[in-house]
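job 3f2a | input accepted
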Amino acid sequence: MDLTKDSLYDWDNPANTPCRWSGNIHNCRDSEFFQIVTFISIGFSALLPPTVIYLLSLSRIRGWMWLQPWKWNTANIYYGCNGWTGLFFVLYDVIVYVDVPGPYWPRHLLFGISFSIFLSGIVPFLHTLTAPAALSLSSEGGSETPKPPLTHRIVQILPLLILLGLMFAIVRAVGMDHEMDVLADVFTSLCLGIYCVSTLLIAYTCCYHGSRFFSLLNAKILTVEGNTVGGGNSKSKNFVASPPPPESRAYRSLGRSISTMHLNDQPQSDGKDAAVCENSGGKSLTAIEARAALRKITYVNVLMFMVAAGGCVFTFLMTIMPSKIFTIMALSKLTYTFLQAGVPALLEAIVMANIITELRRRKSFHDYHNTPDISLVDQARTIHQTIILSQQKGPESEVGVASSRLQGRAFDYCSRI
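job 3f2a | predicted structure (417 res):
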């Protein structure tokens, strides 16, 4: 790589040239530090693909399902993107660590793709948190679904913004290769400005909508558990699926998604629903699964807020100081450490936390029910079949519909997230 094309190159003392670590970490000031951070990044990033594959296998991703990610639920899509993010992090880290000869643009392309996949992977999760059905958890009645908030609409165009930012990153790298310093700085600011807005939106959604969704869902679970205390151990009580009202959006989408669940707190031994569930030969969702889903939401929400908030701060600084930030050594080192080692470390923490949660859920399910391990996806499939069978029994009464609608909203996204 020709370092003389860098506008920061020190012609009098080349060894004193600041490390523009987005493309080079050799033959520059304090290069040993950046090489150590890069080596650490390789370790964390290399762990992501195998741990993601293991987590997806726990979600019953088998055979041809690996080649059909559009059929996965939002959680599995997010985990899959984390795996690809780790893979591109490794490719970039190895290239800059070994210092493979070549122009700037391939390195900047890999650097941009890594963060683009990472930001795009969280979009389905944000889309779920801001969906109208999530907002209706606190509704006490009525069949009207609330209108989606502005955040929900912005989230839908977030992938296009991320793609635009990646294109700007490529133009920036080409400008550096042709020694067009002003053009490179302008497109650097445009690219990082888009990433700054994207991470700000992610941080806001996780902080506001995520915490609100968690509080409402947790309250509904506590209500259901409280209603079943008198009948025995609340943890072993079954949340039996009951059909949603035919006019609801969730009912119309049943044919498209098996992850939509409508649950109430009726014990399995009571009423028609129990007979239907028993005849279907399946298992009903218990508080164990509901709590496991809630823990997964919490881990993703909290850790993603940390990643997005930190990313927003550092991308903002790089937006207003596209080249100068590399000359402020303390700030440059802190930024590189967070982006290159901190991000994959936090992503790996998310994956490991969800693996532990899933294994704990399976153990708890086995302890309480003494049955073979059943994944959340299989639970959702059983509930979907129960809903269809219940619908064939005939329409519910108005009171039953209202109860089903209220309790159903609380668990609508448990297996989707």
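job 3f2a | Confidence is low (pLDDT under 50) at residues 230-285, 395-416.
job 3f2a | closed
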